[in-house]
Amino acid sequence: MKKLWYLFVKFYIRTGFAFYFKRVLVSGKENVPKGKAILFVANHQNALIDPLLIGSVSPRELNFLTRADVFNKRLVRWLLSTVNMLPIYRIKDGINSLSRNEEVFEKCYKILNNKGTVLIFPEGNHNIQRRLRILSKGFTRIIFGTLKINPDLEIVVVPIGINYSNAKKYASSVHLIFGEPIIVNDHHKESALNGASSQLKTDVSNAMKKLITHIENAEHHDTITAKFHEEEFLHPNKVNQRISELGHEEEFEKTVESEFHLLKPLIHMNSFFPLLIWRKFYPKIVEEEFIATYRFSMGISIFPLFYLLQSFIVYLLLGSTASYFYLAFSFLIVFLYVKSK
């Protein structure tokens, strides 16, 4: 039953992304081995959108390590647990809470030992900037902890690069790249685990930097990103090459996207109340990395419910044919708007 629920949620989320992103590109799925223990590691720009994206396109069922503070509410905690999300505690969650990670790591050891998969964001936090930050040692602890229990188990790390044209913007595009698997058993040296952990972190970090736009100099981040069209960031290898060649003073001609769209007034009229809720809620979002998460969450919940409610009103006034037409029309204009942006 849980498997069916997971597949249903995966399908629903993927359908939601079809109405949220202009394009969802996926490369390298052939790099995901079957029947092996896998630790997926990915860059982290966009709060819960990141794991939801990876889960919606992954050829393997995933178990997710997610920041513990999103589990604070009982209903949310239950819902996340039904789709294999596990809380990971950080220092900001309280020193005493860190001891609870031991139980979470034990679950990860068991999952990998059964040749399952775990997804972790080894940067330890999210940041909207286009750069890979220093990796924490949590993912190496999971790997070597599993190998301590079962030294003969082959574990691979599959790096993932998530590349948004604009992480905060609605109807933008995203490109997920699954990198070549890294066999971690070669790093497992019982007599020198600290050195092995450090080398594995370096190897994984270097692999991840090739899959995303990586701007090493955070001070010049905004200056450099301003030189590129948003769609260019879907192809990080080309962007990284150009970054290595250009100077900070160099400028490129950019086109300014028009805000006007023929369907936009129609959508605003048809979605007046859910858009009003969003406008009231938007200023309360403290972290910009959560903008897309809240927008998408409302997009797959409040908006469909509103369309269903209004189609019921149309049914009472004009009959079933008109209500079906209205419902299809409501979803169609949103879909066409997103794909034509």
Architecture overview:
- The chain is α/β, with parallel strands linked by helices.
- The protein folds into 2 domains: 2-216, 3-Layer(aba) Sandwich (Glycerol-3-phosphate (1)-acyltransferase), CATH 3.40.1130.10; 264-339, no CATH class.
- It is built from 13 helices and 8 strands.
- Strands 1, 2, 5, 6, 7 and 8 form a 6-stranded mixed β-sheet that branches.
- Helix 12 (302-318) runs antiparallel to helix 13.
- The radius of gyration is 22 Å and the shape is globular.
Summarize the model shown.
By secondary structure, the protein is of the alpha/beta class.
Q: How do the helices and strands line up, and which of them pair or pack?
A:
Layout: H1 2-20, E1 23-27, E2 37-42, H2 49-57, E3 64-67, H3 74-81, E4 85-88, H4 101-113, E5 117-120, H5 138-149, E6 155-164, E7 173-178, E8 182-183, H6 193-209, H7 221-225, H8 236-245, H9 264-270, H10 272-281, H11 291-299, H12 302-318, H13 320-339
Parallel strand pairs: 1-7, 2-5, 2-6, 3-4
Antiparallel strand pairs: 6-7, 6-8
Helix pairs in contact: 1-2, 4-5, 9-13, 12-13
